[in-house]
Amino acid sequence: MILSCEVLKGNPSDSTLYQSTINKIESDYQIVPRDSVTDGGYASKDNAEYMQGKGIVNIVFNKIVGSLKM
Known about the structure:
Strand order of the largest sheet: 1-2
Shape: globular
Strand content: 5-15%
């Protein structure tokens, strides 16, 4: 299910867009999703911590980047 979509100028890094997208979903629907599955481009430690702080329980990136490897 796609909850938000934007067409942007240029080619910004996906990882810089995630938090504003969650904020837009929260504003549009008055709820934060329980689960989040995203393309690996959104994977970052900052985004994972942001999701946890928002109460998102199930966090899935389709690939793991350096800062998330265990």
